[in-house]
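User: Design a sequence. Structure:
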């Protein structure tokens, strides 16, 4: 079985969010199960030069973009046992950032078409093209319109994964002719509510549509979660499913992580206390081993649940023996709020506005609890990383948080959860966790159970392979 995995970002080359982690890890996991999986992504100018130096030029072709044709260079690179194809066009990709440009629709229309155009030139005809998010949403559409009946493209199936339904690639209808190049009888595939909606086109034409957790697959059928696409998803429900993401357990390993000062494992995590002391020192907090630390590593935006935190944090810090450590950036109101809390409670609250990868690892390793009160969370990776490092998650039951974290009130779970999007429900759950922390013997059992959770890509890859086989049978 051969899979061509198309994504707008992938580690180790380029990353802006969770998609890059998935595109960097899932193909490796598939390869280990003898699935021929290769990755295609744009050759951005911001890819580190040392990685560009490992690339080999294959050839160049021209790719149709509506009424014109554009240069497309094809480069090949090998990383971690996976072959990557990088699509070169300096007009589209020699930019200072990967998204947020006035012509993003045209840039990724070019890329989506290039994914198909390169196939005769790379010696790799896939059985499945697996596309991700709106940036590659046109690939299944273009395949169904222009390529499905060509001999060199026959019998290819397409899979489209929604990582975050909030970002759909919505543009004006004027793009259809000048940028997308769609024939008139295909315009209805992307038209939605009087606009071009690229994600809608993929939902219509892909053979299978997946999301990054089973719960999220159900949630996006609800208007509260779907950002307007619930009606088309309901019509195409027969092709929709959810597979929970995994994490790279080699990269996230507290027994070898070079970013943390002391190493430990599920078999012996006594040195986690030393990482806690180091974290307290880093944020100028009292080094009291009996005071639990709640860690936060997140974008500071409303859908991550920080309006709940803003409503009750003052009460929590004023009444409980607890410390809070926050790393992240985002909306000004939340950045200002956390800075204010750090000034008001310097012995209890430490804040770093920005993102420093090594500091994130230190927070995972040094914290006792990890807070994720999200309004919505398609999958979430931080809660799985927290488990790996023995930091017990406190989460709201939504999306992948619900699928990966189960309340320990039954003596079997791996965290603390609350269901309603309510500040005092969250506060009550935090207080339950703090009470649990006081039972030192029981807490050691919970930490060990959390660290032994299997959130590797192994089970997720098996689910994808099952999906691929069902599609090809």
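Assistant: Done.
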């Amino acid at each position: 079985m051969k899979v061509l995995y198309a994504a707008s970002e992938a580690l180790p080359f380029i990353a802006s969010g969770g998609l890059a982690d998935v595109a960097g890890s899932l193909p490796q996991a598939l390869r280990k199960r003898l699935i021929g999986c290769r990755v295609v992504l744009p050759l951005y100018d911001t890819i580190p030069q040392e990685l560009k130096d490992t690339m080999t030029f294959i050839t160049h072709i021209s790719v149709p973009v509506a009424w014109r044709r554009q240069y497309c260079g094809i480069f090949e690179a090998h990383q971690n046992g996976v072959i990557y194809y990088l699509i070169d066009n300096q007009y589209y990709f020699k930019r200072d950032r990967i998204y947020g440009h006035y012509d993003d629709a045209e840039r990724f229309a070019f890329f989506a078409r290039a994914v198909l155009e390169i196939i005769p030139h790379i010696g790799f005809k896939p059985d499945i093209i697996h596309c991700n998010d709106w940036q590659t949403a046109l690939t299944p559409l273009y395949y169904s319109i222009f390529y499905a009946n060509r001999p060199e493209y026959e019998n290819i199936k397409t899979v489209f994964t929604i990582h975050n339904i909030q970002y759909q690639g919505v543009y004006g209808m004027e793009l259809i002719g000048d940028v997308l190049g769609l024939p008139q009888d295909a315009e209805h595939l992307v038209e939605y509510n009087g606009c071009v909606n690229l994600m809608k086109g993929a939902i219509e034409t892909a053979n299978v549509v997946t999301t990054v957790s089973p719960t999220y697959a159900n949630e996006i059928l609800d208007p509260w979660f779907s950002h307007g696409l619930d009606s088309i998803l309901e019509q195409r429900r027969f092709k929709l499913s959810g597979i929970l993401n995994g994490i790279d357990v080699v990269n996230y390993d507290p027994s070898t992580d070079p970013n943390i000062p002391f190493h430990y494992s599920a078999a012996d995590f006594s040195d986690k206390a030393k990482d806690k002391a180091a974290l307290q020192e880093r944020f100028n907090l009292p080094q009291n081993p009996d005071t639990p630390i709640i860690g936060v590593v997140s974008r500071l935006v409303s859908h991550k649940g920080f309006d709940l935190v803003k409503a009750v944090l003052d009460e929590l810090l004023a009444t409980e023996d607890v410390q809070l450590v926050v790393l992240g950036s985002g909306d000004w109101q939340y950045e200002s709020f956390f800075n204010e809390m750090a000034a008001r409670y310097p012995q209890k609250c430490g804040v770093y506005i920005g993102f420093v990868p090594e500091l994130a690892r230190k927070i995972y390793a040094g914290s006792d609890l990890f807070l994720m009160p999200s309004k919505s969370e398609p999958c979430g990776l931080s809660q799985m990383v927290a488990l790996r490092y023995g930091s017990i998650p406190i989460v709201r039951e939504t999306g992948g948080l619900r699928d990966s974290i189960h309340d320990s009130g039954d003596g079997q779970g791996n965290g603390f959860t609350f269901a309603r999007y309510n500040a005092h429900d969250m506060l009550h759950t935090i207080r339950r966790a703090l009470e649990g922390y006081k039972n030192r013997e029981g807490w050691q059992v919970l930490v060990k159970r959390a660290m032994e959770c299997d959130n590797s890509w192994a089970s997720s890859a098996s689910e994808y392979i099952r999906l691929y086989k069902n599609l090809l049978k």
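Residues 153 and 316 are 60 Å apart (CA to CA). Residues 272-454 form a domain with the Rossmann fold fold (CATH 3.40.50.2000).
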